[in-house]
Amino acid sequence: MTTRPWNMRPDETAKAFQAFEVYRDMGADRSLEKAHRQLTSGSPLDVLKQWSAKHEWQARVRAFDEAAATKAADRALEDAVAVRARQAQHAKAIQLRAMQKIASMAPDDMSMAEATRAWQVGAEAERKALGIADALDLTTGGKPIIPTVFRPAAPDEEPPA
What we know:
161 residues; mainly alpha; rod-shaped
């Protein structure tokens, strides 16, 4: 088991460790003077300075702060991944609803532009949620790719399979 530097040391008294905890938990604004004011034990400031030097408080709080920052960054990354996955699922649901609506409609219920826009909104939301750049077809001069299901078939053309 790895010993964490911010835990109590074998040669550290309970009173010294209590003072260290107060100092450690103050965060970036910590100082021995502020810790001394918070402690009710009545230990003189000079004693805190001795304990700080003897028990390497500076190195220990640096290790504690780094570990806390790493944990916070890991949690933030996990949250970002979860948000992206959830947003991608929602975007897929939007696309599916648009496709279902389009499939069940009579040709005059929705304009081709409205149908295309509904699908584009869902596709764009999914790409953004997944961190994927816009899909552009270079053969169309950079215009978005529109699935053939939205393109009306010419009168003499077979519908896509």
